[in-house]
UniProtKB/TrEMBL annotation:
Protein name: Peptidoglycan lipid II flippase
A single BP term in Gene Ontology: peptidoglycan biosynthetic process
Membrane topology per record: Multi-pass membrane protein
A GO molecular-function annotation: lipid-linked peptidoglycan transporter activity
Record keywords, A-Z: Cell membrane, Cell shape, Membrane, Peptidoglycan synthesis, Transmembrane, Transmembrane helix
Cleavable signal peptide: none
Transmembrane region(s): 12-33, 53-75, 87-110, 122-146, 158-182, 202-224, 245-266, 286-306, 327-353, 365-383, 395-420, 426-450, 471-495, 501-523
Main localization of the protein described in the UniProt heading: membrane
Example of a GO cellular component annotation carried by this entry: plasma membrane
Length: 541
């Protein structure tokens, strides 16, 4: 457990630093192109294409297959070097092919994600995409290297490397502002003439975004020596167990295809609100949502997944059940606090990424919609990766299909209800809420299916713990909202500027956390004692 704690702390620190610098990156980017406008939506749609493929690789095929496979390959005489060399070579070839294919299909890809954009916005998005799509190769190689490092228990570099990407991007976007000016959120005429979105502007903005991804990939190469593996290009793929890997990846690939189809439909739906809270607000809110998710869930869950995979490979089902319970309780304690704090501070948080208080209030509804699903998504992380640890990728596919059908249903209902001019500003928030509700239903189904596989999971203790956390969160969130209202609410100083919004977030977050801890102490939560003991041990060191 000491090793797990140390690994979790290292990942948490790196993830927190990368997410904070990522937020700064978003602030600088929004200073350049804004968050409400056609041009900003065009860039976001284009830059998100390689990100979507990165999500397929990192949370789909690699997470589901590579970590368990490398644990098994490491038992070989060469420590798995031969098989990993073959897999890296195969991955590089497939990634290069995917990058080329995506650039050939750039027009239909942009249309799929932004079908409701006007023609000028689509044209500008395509121009950006030509500069952004090479990121597919570098995102993929970054994920291959990073997941291999994780599987070899070298956890830190994968969490810290994105900081380099953020620093490069911050500097590059700063150059863009210095050369061309800021807040260029409208098309202003999509032409090649000076003053419009011409080739130099498009090339600088898109090129900087890609350069950051290239830099973060090369950072991991400096740490490869720690794996103890010597890899080389190897095109002799016969005999490396591709049939077994293929049977696993086929389900995860199909699962991610379902996820991307759902994402396409959601983004196509919210593109109807372009110029208001639309594509850029959606992804900016998702970035904020991912800050607590990444720091809490990925930093704690990743080492647990490696340990859980080892226990599953050894057939120690009782230890797997214990891992599941401990992970859910630890993640739940922190995720409930994060949900309460960020919901209470949603408007000041959104103000950091918008240009005025009115936009902040509108964007905050999108953020709250996502936050509804934070705790369910944390539990889903544990449950889904338990299936992966047992080499079962088919069952996660089916409960992902279930979630996808619900998400599409909610998105369809949203576009029908919020299609009028008066209600269109709430369209994106409605789709985000539907995403969270479908994720909640998904985790209920997934947990039931896992119980059928492993037998009783002993989750009664974890459910009672989550109930305690929820009870403690109610007065905590109330305290945070009270601070916000006492400071003027939507018309107060917290929404006057970025600095004021950050100060407001600190005040609201501090009040929420204080009341949450006191409430847990009153409820005599044993999980609180475990966390405080861990913090004290860290401070003594």
């Amino acid at each position: 457990m000491t090793s797990l704690g140390r690994s979790s702390a290292m990942i948490a620190a790196g993830t927190l630093a990368s997410r904070v610098t990522g937020l700064v990156r978003s602030i600088v980017l929004i200073a350049a192109v804004g968050s409400f406008g056609n041009a900003s939506d065009a860039f976001t749609a284009a830059n998100q294409l390689p990100n979507n493929i990165f999500m397929i690789i990192s949370t789909g095929v690699l997470t589901a297959v590579i970590v368990p496979q490398i644990v098994r390959w490491s038992a070989r005489e060469d420590g798995g070097a031969s098989h990993i060399s073959k897999f890296m070579t195969l991955g590089g070839v497939l990634l290069a092919g995917a990058s080329v294919l995506a650039m050939i299909l750039v027009w239909p890809l942009i249309w799929l994600y932004g079908a409701r954009f006007d023609p000028d916005t689509i044209a500008l998005a395509v121009a950006f995409a030509y500069w952004c799509l090479p990121q597919i190769f570098f995102y993929g190689m970054f994920a291959l290297l990073g997941e291999t490092l994780n599987a070899r228990r070298v956890f830190g570099p994968y969490a810290w490397a994105p900081i380099v990407n953020n620093i490069v991007s911050i500097a590059g976007f700063g150059v863009f502002i210095a050369v061309f000016g800021g807040h260029q959120s409208s098309l202003a005429q999509w032409t090649t003439a000076d003053g419009g979105w011409n080739l130099p502007k498009v090339a600088l903005l898109g090129g900087v975004a890609t350069l950051g991804i290239v830099a973060q990939m090369f950072v991991l190469l400096f740490f490869w020596r720690r794996t103890g593996l010597s890899i080389r290009p190897d095109f002799r793929w016969r005999g490396m167990g591709l049939r077994e890997v293929g049977s696993l990846t086929s389900w995860t690939f199909l699962m991610m295809v379902i996820g991307q189809l759902v994402s396409m439909y959601q983004q196509s739906t919210i593109s109807d609100a372009s110029g208001q809270a639309s594509v850029t607000v959606w992804f900016t809110s998702w970035l904020v949502f991912m800050l607590p998710y990444s720091v809490i869930v990925l930093s704690i869950g990743t080492p647990y997944f490696t340990q859980l995979s080892e226990h599953a490979a050894a057939g120690r089902d009782d230890e797997v059940r214990a891992d599941i319970g401990r992970a859910i309780r630890m993640l739940g304690l922190l995720c409930v606090l994060a949900t309460a704090a960020v919901m209470a501070a949603a408007a000041p948080v959104a103000r950091i990424f918008t240009e005025n208080g009115e936009q902040a209030v509108e964007a905050s509804l999108v953020l709250i919609g996502f936050l509804i699903g934070l705790v369910p998504l944390a539990v889903q992380f544990v449950v889904q990766r338990t299936f992966y640890a047992y080499g079962d990728t088919r069952t996660p596919f089916w409960f992902t299909v279930f979630q996808g059908v619900l998400s599409v249903t909610f998105a369809t209902a949203s576009i029908l209800v919020f299609s009028t001019d008066e209600l269109r500003p709430y369209l994106t928030a409605a789709v985000a809420t539907g995403q969270s509700l479908s994720s909640t239903a998904q985790v209920v189904l997934a947990t039931w299916l896992l119980r059928r596989r492993l037998g009783p999971l002993g989750l009664g203790v974890s459910l009672r713990a989550l109930l305690r956390f929820a009870l403690a969160a109610l007065p905590a969130a109330g305290a945070g909202v009270g601070v916000y209202l006492l400071c003027g609410g939507a018309g107060g100083w917290m929404l006057d500027g970025i600095a004021q919004a950050i100060a407001g977030c600190i005040l609201i977050g501090g009040a929420t956390a204080l009341v949450y801890v006191v409430a847990l102490a009153v409820l005599r939560s044993p999980e609180l004692k475990s966390v405080t003991q861990l913090i004290r041990a860290r401070l003594r060191r």
